[in-house]
Amino acid sequence: QVQLVESGGGSVQAGGSLRLSCAGSVGTFDTYALAWFRQAPGKEREIVAAISWHGRNTHYSDSAKGRFIISRDNAKSTLDLQMDSLEPTDTAAYYCAAAPVLKGDTIVGSAAGYRYWGQGTQVTVSS
Fold first, then answer.
1. Cα gap 97→91, rounded to integer Å
2. What pLDDT, on a 0 to 100 scale, did the predictor assign at position 36?
3. Are 11 and 126 in contact (CB under 8 A)?
4. Which of 8, 23, 82, 92 sits between 20 and 30 A of 14, alpha carbons compared?
5. pLDDT tens digits for 19-40?
């Protein structure tokens, strides 16, 4: 069983920055593709950024490109999301997720492909 715990959420003004972190069980991140999703009230969960097992391949939503950076440290079983130039539309609960994969360069772009989820951390951006 993979356990994921997010941290780093909070309230910030527009233009500010936050860094989200996701900690996994020891040894968790080997052979898993990872991602950050978010869900705002009344909206569907959407992918923000994804990263391959070996960390060399990444994918960003259009809204995250140029502002967010996803990174991982497999030795420490951590996944981070650096978020800069935050906008009120970024307000949502953010979730990290893990998907078992067979190849190190695989990106999983759909929520359906992720087997394990964290409990979420709230990000609120005020104008």
1. 19
2. 98
3. yes
4. 23
5. 999 999 867 787 899 999 999 9
Collapsed DSSP state (helix, strand, coil) of residue 107: coil
Read off φ and ψ for residue 66, nearest 5 degrees.
Answer: 85, -10
pLDDT of residue 57: 96
d(CA 116, CA 61): 20
If you ran DSSP here, which 8-state letter would residue 120 be given? -
Q: Which residue has the tokens 């759909």?
A: 110
- For residue 99, give the nearest of 115, 112, 78 by alpha carbon: 115
In the numeric block, which tokens belong to residue 103?
A: 């190849």
Give pLDDT, residue 2: 87
Residue 42: which H helix or E strand, with range? none
Quick one: which of 40, 69, 73, 76 has its CA closest to 54? 73
pLDDT (tens digit, 9 = 90+) per residue, 45-86? 999 999 999 999 999 999 999 999 999 999 999 999 999 999
Residue 59's SS3 state is strand
How many C-beta atoms surround the C-beta of residue 41 within 10 A?
7
Q: What is the DSSP letter of 1?
A: -
